[in-house]
C-alpha cells in the first residue's frame, strides 16, 4: 500500500484552531473538531488500519466469554511500529500540532497509539480517567480519538463529562464495572455536562488524561473503528508509579526511562 502525495501533504497542513476552541478545551478538557481529516485521507487509513488490526488481533473468544473491559473493544497497540503506512498518520504534524496547541505546550511526543475497534454487539466502555494508568508527572496529556467512519449514537461514540478533570475521587479506579457505577454516581450529583453526540466522518475529538469519559455499546451491525494517538508534553517526566498498572505502563510504553527525568525512549518520539 502506498500513500498518495495528496494525503502525505494533507497530513502536514495545520488545522486552523481558534482561541475560543483552545479556551473551550482548557475549560472542559475535551473538544470535538469537525473536518480534521478529509474523505480521501479517512478512507485510506480506514483500509490500512483495518488490515493491520486484522493481522494483529488475537481475540477470538465470543463476547459473552469476556469481561466488561474485554467486551468494550478490540485493543491493539503501537500500530506505527507494525506498518509504515499507519506510521504516517501517527506522525502527522496536523494532528500533533493540534495536540500541542490545545495543551498550550511547545512540543509533544508519543506516549503510544492504539486501535479501539468496538465490535457489533460490543459492550459499553465504562467511565474512567486514562491517567490512572500513566506514570506521568503532569496533566499535559491528551488523546486524539479518531473515528475511521461516521459514528452515530447507535455505535457508541465517545462521551465526556465536560470539566470533570476537577473531580479527584474516581481517579483511582481501573476500567470496569466498578468504575462505571461509582463514577456515574459521582457525576450525577455534579453540574458537569454529560456530552453524548455522534461524530461526523472526518470529525475527531481530543480529551485530556484526567477528564472522565465513557462510550455506549455498539448496537449496530458494523464495527465501530477508531484509532487513537496519546500525546504528552515533549518535556514530560516519568513519575514514581502509584499503582501496578503504572509500573506496567512504564516498562511497556517508556522502556528504560528514569524516574524524575524526561521520557525520551526510542518509542516516545517527538511528533511536533
Ligand atoms: O473508544 C472507546 O470506547 C473508549 C476510548 C477511551 O477511553 C480513550 O481513548 O481514552
From TrEMBL:
Cofactors demanded by this protein: Fe(2+)
Keywords assigned by UniProt, alphabetized: Dioxygenase, Oxidoreductase
Entry's Gene Ontology molecular function annotations: 2-oxoglutarate-dependent dioxygenase activity; iron ion binding
Pfam families linked to this entry: PhyH
Gene3D superfamilies: q2cbj1_9rhob like domain
Residues in the signal sequence: none
Protein name: Phytanoyl-CoA dioxygenase
Amino acid at each position: 500500500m502506498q500513500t498518495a502525495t495528496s494525503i502525505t501533504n494533507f497530513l502536514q497542513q495545520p488545522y486552523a484552531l481558534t482561541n475560543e476552541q483552545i479556551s473551550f478545551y482548557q475549560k472542559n478538557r475535551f473538544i470535538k473538531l469537525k473536518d480534521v481529516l478529509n474523505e480521501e485521507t479517512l478512507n485510506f487509513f480506514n483500509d490500512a488500519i483495518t488490515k493491520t488490526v486484522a493481522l494483529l488481533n488475537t481475540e477470538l473468544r465470543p463476547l459473552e466469554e469476556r469481561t466488561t473491559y474485554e467486551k468494550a473493544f478490540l485493543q491493539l497497540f503501537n500500530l506505527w511500529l507494525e506498518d509504515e503506512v499507519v506510521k504516517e498518520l501517527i506522525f502527522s504534524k496536523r494532528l500533533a500540532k493540534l495536540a500541542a496547541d490545545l495543551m498550550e505546550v511547545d512540543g509533544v511526543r508519543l506516549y503510544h497509539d492504539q486501535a479501539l475497534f468496538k465490535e457489533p454487539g460490543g459492550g459499553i466502555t465504562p467511565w474512567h480517567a486514562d491517567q490512572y494508568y500513566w506514570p506521568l508527572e503532569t496533566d499535559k496529556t491528551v488523546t486524539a480519538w479518531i473515528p475511521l467512519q461516521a459514528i452515530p449514537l447507535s455505535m457508541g461514540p465517545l462521551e465526556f463529562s465536560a470539566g470533570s478533570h476537577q473531580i479527584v475521587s474516581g481517579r483511582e479506579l481501573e476500567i470496569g464495572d466498578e468504575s462505571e457505577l461509582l463514577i456515574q454516581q459521582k457525576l450525577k450529583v455534579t453540574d458537569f455536562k454529560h456530552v453524548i453526540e455522534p461524530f461526523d466522518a472526518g470529525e475527531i475529538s481530543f480529551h485530556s488524561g484526567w477528564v472522565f469519559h465513557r462510550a455506549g455499546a455498539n448496537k449496530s451491525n458494523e464495527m465501530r473503528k477508531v484509532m487513537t494517538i496519546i500525546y504528552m508534553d515533549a518535556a514530560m517526566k516519568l513519575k514514581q508509579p502509584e499503582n501496578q498498572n503504572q509500573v506496567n505502563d512504564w516498562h511497556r510504553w517508556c522502556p528504560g526511562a528514569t524516574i524524575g527525568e524526561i521520557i525520551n525512549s526510542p518509542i516516545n518520539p517527538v511528533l511536533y
